[in-house]
């Protein structure tokens, strides 16, 4: 996961309805959901900053990612903006701890936002797959990152990220006594969760790590 943001979080308004639905539909979640009380998914920050954090945090620890993020964001005055990123030099970004590849990825992300190639204001009217298509066109953002963005930033209710290692492990432990699980088996388990797959996924993650995830 990317490092935590400091902004106040926003919680989805469908959460309580989703929990009632999942408790009725799924024997595992019937036991799991009550264990976590009032804990909720929360969305923080803006779209550009969230995606930039996901790139900075790739393949390094949360602690290291936060350190690099603080140094990189500190190169820019005020709020992080795509136009500011495009003005940064490669060497100063490398000096903040970024790899050459991540510098390229962040430049491509900024260029997409600056040129209006991602339609942030239209996302509310677009379906999940259309948003994923926009995001994976950016270098450094794959389907998994796009799905995490749908869950944690846009708070879309029905995302099933089958490329997520934690989800597959959680399904294995909770539904298959720890036996390896295929994507088809995981998808079948997830069918009972619709139209609130994202909420179910969040609780499956909680079964592995009780601390709520912030993206």
UniProtKB/TrEMBL annotation:
Residues 56-209 form the HhH-GPD domain. Keywords: DNA damage, DNA repair. SUPFAM superfamilies: DNA-glycosylase. Its EC number is 3.2.2.21. CDD domains: ENDO3c (cd00056). InterPro entries: Alkylbase_DNA_Glycosylase/TA, DNA_glycosylase, HhH-GPD_domain. Pfam families: HhH-GPD. Coiled coil: none annotated. It catalyses: Hydrolysis of alkylated DNA, releasing 3-methyladenine, 3-methylguanine, 7-methylguanine and 7-methyladenine. Signal peptide: none annotated. PANTHER family: DNA-3-METHYLADENINE GLYCOSYLASE. This is DNA-3-methyladenine glycosylase II. The lineage of its organism: Bacteria, Pseudomonadati, Pseudomonadota, Betaproteobacteria, Burkholderiales.
């Amino acid at each position: 996961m990317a490092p935590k943001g400091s902004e106040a979080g926003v919680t989805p308004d469908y959460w309580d309805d989703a929990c009632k639905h999942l408790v009725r539909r799924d024997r595992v979640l019937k036991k799991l959901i009550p264990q976590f009380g009032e804990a909720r998914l929360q969305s923080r920050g803006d779209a550009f900053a969230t995606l930039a954090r996901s790139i900075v945090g790739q393949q390094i620890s949360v602690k290291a990612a936060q350190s690099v993020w603080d140094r990189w964001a500190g190169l820019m005055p005020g709020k992080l903006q795509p136009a500011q990123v495009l003005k940064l030099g490669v060497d100063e970004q490398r000096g903040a701890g970024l790899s050459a590849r991540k510098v390229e990825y962040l430049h491509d992300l900024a260029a997409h936002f600056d040129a209006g190639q991602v339609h942030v204001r239209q996302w509310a009217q677009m379906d999940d797959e259309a948003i994923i298509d926009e995001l994976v066109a950016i270098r450094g953002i794959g389907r998994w990152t796009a799905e995490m963005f749908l869950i944690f930033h846009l708070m879309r209710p029905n995302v099933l990220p089958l490329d997520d290692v934690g989800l597959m492990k959680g399904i294995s432990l909770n539904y298959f006594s720890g036996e390896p699980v295929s994507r088809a088996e995981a998808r079948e388990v997830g069918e009972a969760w619709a139209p609130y797959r994202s909420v179910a996924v969040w609780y499956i993650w909680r079964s592995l790590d009780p601390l709520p995830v912030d993206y």
